[in-house]
Structures are given as structure tokens and as C-alpha cells.
Amino acid sequence: MAKIHVLDKHTAELIAAGEVVERPSSVVKELTENAIDAGATAVTVTIERGGISMIQIADNGSGIEAESIPTAFLRHATSKIQSEDDLENIHTLGFRGEALASIASVARVELLTKTEQDEYAYCYRISGGEEEGIEPGARPQGTTITVRDLFYNTPARMKFLKKDASEGNYVSDVVSQLALSHPEISFKFVREGKVQFQTPGDGKLLSAAYAVLSRDFAKDLLEVGHVHGNYQISGLVTPPKSGRASRSMQHFFINGRFVKNRTMMAALEAAYKGVLMQGRFPGCVLTVTMPPQLVDVNVHPAKTEVRFAREKEVFDAVYSAVKSVLITPESSSKALAFEEKSVSRPMETPHPAPAAAPVRPTKPAAEQIRAYDNMVSRLASVSPVPYRAVYEKEPDTPVVEIPKRPAPFVPAAQEKEASAPVVSACETKVPAAEAKAEIQQTVLPGIQPEKQELRFVGEVFNTYIIAQRGQEICFIDKHAAHERIIYESIMEHYGQVSSQMLLVPATIRLSGEEKNALMQHEKILADSGLEIEDFGGSSVVVRAVPADVPPDDVENLVVELASHLRENPRYTVGEKTEWVLHSIACRAAIKAGDKTHAAQLMRLAQEVMDGKIPPFCPHGRPVILRLTLKELEKQFGRQG
Q1: Beta bridge mates, 506
Q2: Which residue, 46, 385, 452, 453, shows the most beta carbons closer than 10 Å to its own?
Q3: Is 227 helix (H, G, I), strand (E, B) or coil?
Q4: CB 379 within 8 A of CB 582
Q5: In terms of Cα–Cα distance, which of 450, 455, 429, 381 is closest to 578?
Q6: Strands 186-191 and 42-48: what pairing?
Q7: How crowded is residue 56: how many other Cβ atoms within 10 Å of its Cβ?
Q8: Average pLDDT for residues 293-302, to the nearest whole number?
Q9: Could you give the CA distance from residue 487 to residue 612 in angstroms, rounded to a whole number?
Q10: What is the mean pLDDT of the chain?
Q11: Confidence label for 79 from pLDDT (cuts 50, 70 and 90)
């Protein structure tokens, strides 16, 4: 039987420290919360090498009395609670008394502090849990705590840290959350010698959001102020038109503490149901002020998860607060102004009904056919019409005969195997290079080139192309077809994808985790035609995008890519590459509801009917639906 013995002091401290100190951002969170609890009105956070080399937190709070300094570094020593009953009425961010002891056990710490009553400041040093003495120092009232060489004595924990830039992004997220939760405090964040942001500390949440989350995000935010029983909800939410591709801009706070809570998230998104496009997510900075007896914050080491005594009441409070803002005239007027200025994204902002066209006299049928024959001849003699050409004028009638195109070249090896089933690239998970080679020169079963001429009939619902060939009517999803064509093109030229430089580079703010995921896959993005660079802080700058991607959709594309790469780190390189190309193709393709010229629709139909592309979009949806004359006659009772 194993003998039970007490661990030595150093080993015990290293084990206990793991719950509080996981990485530099954990240190910044604990020390900055101490500064807030000390009544500071100005806090400066400085880091070097992502916080691994140095972290410094300076505040103008109340300071620590000289005789209490050594005691502060003992485990479970705190000034914020005294008994079990106090756990039911916590008003401070910290209360366990573990942070300073845990940090001091794995780093070199220097504390410089002065109270209002002290004649001079005191400087206290402790390294690896061992005191190095206290001596006089100089500084105004407040505290400066410097942490150097984090995990210098625990190499096993050091090796699990990420790159300096990644750790710095995690720290940036923590400081941003604290700045948003306390707009009455001026926060200054200095990273690698450069000021990333500074909030004014004027008590206005919009000012803090402007400084921390960027001007573009903050300019249209709607103010929330609502009381629901014991709950007071305040903050800012995005208007419906400003939905994002991920939830990274959702910030929730309980009594000034940042939390991750599914109840509040579900209530927020439920309030937007019916006014926000599917697949988009609202952004917010929402604070719920409630009696501390109704919430338990002592359920997670980092105190980012909480438990509510009355969860349904919290849901109802958040839902009603947000819903009351979204139904106001101010919310709808802003959305209307955006739609009037919008250029052309029909799936995001509905087009106004077109004005009624004057009635034209009907032309004789022969004259109509001759006119279309002339139009097709002209189209054949000029350069192809781009898929995204501006819609100017529809043909007078929706019927045109398209000249037969030569059948695509089929290698002899594939000719012999024509009867064998061919697996399309969208059904398999393969690396990009292999996928590119696999889908080139592919002849599709069931859509073999035919000798009959293709007859373009028209388009319905601004979405589906109708074409006739022989005894079949074909319905083609124009978005799915165009998406597949673009995907094939990008795959074929992967590594040398044609890009367009943006006239004005797009600066996009992401969460720290999203930015890390994006920058770790910079080569995949570059090979796909996306030129993205680190812009400091939690922002990236996009300088070029694939040629077919609309410039006004760049931010949505980058946010979507960053969110997916962050949520699926275990995907193989091939799977990630394939998904990036899928997303680019989907964003670049013409959308259902877009006004599309007849010549563009003809080209799409021809590509599909000639078997140039697989009959599925990159996400697996069918591109074409066939209806034979025999099946149609059965429906009308012409055949038994």
C-alpha cells in the first residue's frame, strides 16, 4: 500500500497554480481585476513577447499597506471576503485570494505600491514563491506590479504556450473585455512598445466600444436600457443590417464581470429572429446588473462561467430588453438608410419593386426569332460576357437558340473508363493539390455531351435557369452552377489564383483566437488568392482578394474563414484548404435573386449541360434537375 505523505511547499504551489495561471492572459486578468477592485480610475497594461517576458499592471488605486504586502502573497489571503456568508454577496471581481500566490510561484514578481497615508512607496520582490525582501521606493498613490519570466521554473508548462503573437492576442482580448465592462475606468494597453488602444474613462460605454472595438463596429450601435424585475439590462447592440458571420463580437457581463453564458446568447439571438438574415449573428456589449444572491460566480477557476438561480428570468430580461430596441423607429430608419445607399447585394437587402414598363406592341414570331439569331451571332463575335456584368436590359423574349459547342476533349484513358462511376471532388476529403488533379478533365456520368442543340427558355424566381435539350427540360440553380465553376477555376490555379488589389485595403477586427487561426493559415489563404497581413492588436488588413469576390463582401468572407478555422483546428490541411476554396467560391458566385443578363445565363447553362463541371456545388447541393417529356406527359394524363 502506497504511503501517504505531505508534498513539499514548492511542489504543492506548482500544482495549485495551474487552476489560476494557465497563460499570460490569466495573469493579466487576475492582476487587472485586483486594480479595479482597488478603486482605480486609470489602469495601464504593458506586455512584452506576448506577456511571457514581461507583464506590468500600473494603477492609481488605493494601494497596499506596507505591513500587508507579504500577507497578500500567501495562499487564500484576501481582503474581499471574511466568512462563508460573504460568498452569497460578492460585489468584487476577485475573492479567492489565490492569484498573487499562484503567480509568484511560477514567475519573478516585483510589487511597488503606496497608500495615501504612506510617506513613501514600498518595493517588494518574490521569485518562485521565495521572498527577496522589501525596500523603499518611489511612485504616486497606487500599485505597479511587474511579472517577468513567466514559467521560468516550470519548463513543462512553458512548452504548451503558443507563439508570442498568439499569446499577445489572448491578452488583448482580456484587456478589451475589462475595458468594456468598466467604461468609467481609463484603460491603456501597450503591446511590444506600441499603444494598441486607450479608453477615455468618461463612463460612456459607446466611447469605450469606439476605442476598443473600432469605429466601424461602434458607429451604428443601438443603446439598450431596460429594467425587468430584479434585472437591469444596459449596453449596446448592432442593428439588424450589421450582422456578422460569427459570434466573436458578442460580449456579456454580469455585475461588471465578463462571462460566457449560453442563456444570454440564446436570448439575444432569439430577439433578432425574423429581422436578421439566416447565418448572420448580432454583436453586442450587454451588462446585466442583478442581486448577487441570484448568481453563483464560484463555479469555474477563471470565473467566466456563472450559474443563475432563476435562468428563465434572465432569458426573459435580455430578450425583452433587446427586442424593445429592435422594434423602435430608430432601428428601422437606420436599416432603411443603409438599403437606399446599398449598391447590389440582393440577398442581404431586398430590391425595391421595379417600375412598371410601358406596354410594347407584340412583334411577329419570325421577326422575334431573327432578332435573337442576330443577338447570338453578335455574342459569338465578341468577348464573353462576364458572369457579374451589370444588368442593363433584358431580351424582348425569353427564347433563343444557342449554337452547338464542340464536345470537351476526353483523354483515351478516360474514354475506356467512361462506364466506371466517377467520384466528384465535393464528395471526398482530399488535399487541395490532389483534388485539383483529380477533377481536371472529368467527364460526368449522366451529363455526357449531347448532339442536340441547347434551347434557352428563360429564368424563374431570379434563381433557376430553364433550358431544353432534346426531350428534356432542365432546371439549373444559377448560384450553385456559378459556385462550382468558380471553385473549379480556383482549384485549377491554386497557388496562382488571379487576385484583385483592393483600392482601399480593408481593415477587419477579429477576436484574438480568430486572428491566431487566420494567421496560422496565411499560406493557404495566399495560395487561394487572399492577401492578408497582421495589422497589430486584434486586426488584420486585406489587400487583395480573388477576382470574382465583391469588395463589399470582403469582411464577411474573412470573418467566416477565421471563425471556421478557429472552430475546427483538428481538420487536416487538405480539408481546411478545400473548405477555404468552398467559402471563396460561394461568396464570389452570383446570388439567388440577383438580376442576371440572359447571355450570362446562357453561358452558365451551356457549361452545365456540356458536362464541364460536376453536377453538384462544392457543398454537395445539386446543380441541375431534369424533367423528361415522358414524365411531363404522365402528369397531364397523356401517357398511362
Answers
A1: 542
A2: 46
A3: strand
A4: no
A5: 429
A6: parallel
A7: 19
A8: 70
A9: 13
A10: 76
A11: low
Residue 12: half-sphere exposure toward Cβ, Cα within 13 Å: 7
Please check whether residue 476 is in contact with residue 602, taking contact to mean a CB–CB distance below 8 angstroms: no
β-pairing verdict for 284-289 and 250-254 = parallel
Which of 414-421's residues contact partners 24+ apart within 8 Å by CB, and which partners? Answer: 414/441, 414/443, 418/443, 418/445, 421/445
Please say whether the dihedral angle defined by the alpha carbons of residues 68, 72, 74 and 80, taken in this order, is positive or negative.
positive
Helix (H) or strand (E) holding 319: helix 311-326
Indicate if the pLDDT at residue 417 is higher than 50.
no
- Residue 169 pLDDT > 70, yes or no? yes
Phi, psi of 233 (to 5 degrees): -110, 130
How many residues are present in the chain?
640
**pTM (two decimals):** 0.62
Helix (H) or strand (E) holding 501: strand 499-509
Alpha carbons 385 and 383: distance in angstroms, whole number = 6
Centre a 10 Å sphere on the Cβ of residue 26 and count the other Cβ atoms it contains. 23
CA end-to-end distance (rounded Å), the chain = 86
Quote the cell numbers at residue 158. Answer: 512553458
DSSP state of 302: T
Nearest Cα residue to 510 out of 576, 565, 567, 558: 558
**What's the CA gap between 449 and 443, in Å, rounded?**
9
For residues 282 and 501, what is the distance between their CA atoms, to the nearest angstrom? 30
Task: Write the pLDDT tens digit of every residue in 215-265.
Answer: 888 888 999 999 998 899 999 999 888 888 888 889 999 888 888 888 999
Query: 311-326 and 262-271 helices cross at what angle (nearest 10)?
Result: 30
* Phi, psi (degrees; rounded to nearest 5) at 147: -115, 120
Q: What Cα–Cα distance (Å) separates residue 639 from each residue in 334, 540, 630, 631, 632?
A: 57, 63, 8, 9, 9
Q: Where are the alpha helices (DSSP H) in 18-56?
A: 24-37
Q: Which three cell numbers stand for residue 250?
A: 458578442
What mean pLDDT do residues 582-603 have?
A: 85
Q: How far apart are CA 454 and CA 467, in angstroms?
A: 7
pLDDT of 431 over the 50 cut: no
Q: Percentage of the chain with pLDDT > 70?
A: 73
Residue 185: strand, helix, or coil:
coil
Closest CA to 309 of 254, 270, 388: 254
d(CA 136, CA 145): 15
Cα separation values, 140 from 59, 120, 477, 617, Å: 10, 9, 70, 66
**What residue type is 263 in one-letter code?**
T
At 476 the three-state DSSP class reads strand
Q: Which residue has the cell 483546428?
A: 569
Sole residue written with cell 468594456: 180
Q: How far apart, in Å, are the Cα atoms of 46 and each of 185, 264, 591? A: 16, 32, 47
SS3 label, residue 532: strand
Instruction: Give the CA distances from residue 85 to residues 81, 88, 96, 167, in Å, rounded to whole numbers and listed in that order.
Output: 9, 6, 14, 38
Identity at 132, one-letter amino acid code: E
Count CA atoms closer than 13 A to 433's CA, side-chain side. Answer: 3
Q: What is the pLDDT of residues 106-140, one digit of tens each?
A: 999 999 999 998 889 999 999 988 888 899 999 99
User: Three-class SS of residue 413?
Assistant: helix
